[in-house]
Amino acid sequence: MRRIELLRVALTGLLRNKMRSLLTMLGVIIGVAAVIVMVSISAGTEATIEEQITGLGTNLVFVTASFQRGLPGGGGGEGGGLVYADAYAIADQIVGVQAIVVEQPSSETVKAGDVTLDQTEVLGSTADFPSVRDMQIAEGRYFKQEEVDRKAKVAVLGASIASELFGTNDPIGEVITVGNTKLTVIGVFAERGQVSETDYDARIYTPITVVFQKFTPNQFARLIGDRVRVIYVELKPDANMDDVILQIELLLARRHDVSLDSADFSVTTQQDIINTQESTTAAFRNLLAWVAGVSLVVGGIGIMNIMLVSVTERTREIGIRQSVGATPGDVRWQFLAEAMLLSLFGGLIGILAGISGAVIFGAASGMRTVVLPTSILLAFLSAAAVGVFFGYYPANKAALLDPIEALRHE
């Protein structure tokens, strides 16, 4: 039987019971759509995490406090964790370091003239912040390390918060009140936008020593001192990252009077963090794909069940076809083609539903979704495989029917 004729006969057989064919495809549609949506959610999560990490800057090493040695008095030269002075030591003593950034956030009420902004993020930082974070100054300047050391009460505004506080007026030289502290505006950053969940334009930037002194609760400051959670180390382009990491670990271990095995800090790279997050999301994605795959299997079982019913209903038709010259192979291919058409049509509808579902889910939930072409191809090929696998048994059963017995069937 020619292929065109084979497809025509198979399609005619499916169109006899349109509603039953549609319901049979439903399992495949749901399975394919679920695979695409689940993978797009996972891929969107991975992309967001990678964007957030790379948005911190390039060629960075992260020195993170583990606090496993406890609070002051818990042993070690610095009492556990990282302190602000550790950043100075790394900058002064480690070969291959280009810049150091330490950050300390706070949330304060900000006033400028008649404008008041509540719960505004104030980020205490160091002089190398613009180069490490790839931020450009649009007006004025950024504060210098000397101003950080002497706790100068100065501020640099993000683009959007400068507009909110001063409109179209020039903010340079103006005084703003942050909490109960007056800060002089010395610069405004160029617009950077939002990276992941961080809006760089909606921040006020001031020396980290000012945040320690003015915006850290007194009891907390007395308890832990000028402690920091992360020190960002930017390496020189020609620096050997492994050598620099080893230098940092040995320096901090000596400063904290700990061994590397019991260190109260950890040193990681951007790629380390990305790889860890990717392995976590990959495991989650695989789990979701298997769950979605169950829907495809259920859809395949539905196809096999309906095809078996179809073989029983059309036994006499099969006998007539065999009596006029159709071979068992022709019959087998006819029913296998019907099963494949069911799965392929279901796959195509499922692809459309999956892409639409991923877009709608992303818009409604606020989560980022990324539809991968590979997930579409995987879902479509899986649907085709389901049609072949679950359609073969009913097709083979139809091909093995005895023509005489089939003709006698009522």
Describe the structure.
This protein is of the alpha+beta class. Helices cover 57% and strands 19% of the residues. It has 14 helices and 15 strands. It has helices at residues 3-15, 18-54, 84-93, 129-133, 145-149, 159-166, 208-215, 218-224, 241-256, 270-313, 315-323, 328-365, 373-399, 403-408, and strands spanning 60-65, 82-83, 97-102, 104-112, 115-125, 137-140, 154-157, 175-178, 181-189, 194-195, 198-199, 203-207, 227-228, 230-235, 265-269. The strands form four sheets. It has a six-stranded mixed beta barrel. Strand 8 (175-178) and strand 9 form a beta hairpin. Helix 2 (18-54) packs antiparallel against helix 10 (270-313), helix 3 crosses helix 9 and helix 12 runs antiparallel to helix 13. The protein is elongated, with a radius of gyration of 33 Å. Mean pLDDT is 81; it is low at 69-79.
List the helices and strands and how they pair.
Blueprint: H1 3-15, H2 18-54, E1 60-65, E2 82-83, H3 84-93, E3 97-102, E4 104-112, E5 115-125, H4 129-133, E6 137-140, H5 145-149, E7 154-157, H6 159-166, E8 175-178, E9 181-189, E10 194-195, E11 198-199, E12 203-207, H7 208-215, H8 218-224, E13 227-228, E14 230-235, H9 241-256, E15 265-269, H10 270-313, H11 315-323, H12 328-365, H13 373-399, H14 403-408
Parallel strand pairs: 5-12, 7-9
Antiparallel strand pairs: 1-14, 1-15, 2-13, 3-14, 4-5, 4-8, 6-9, 7-12, 8-9, 10-11
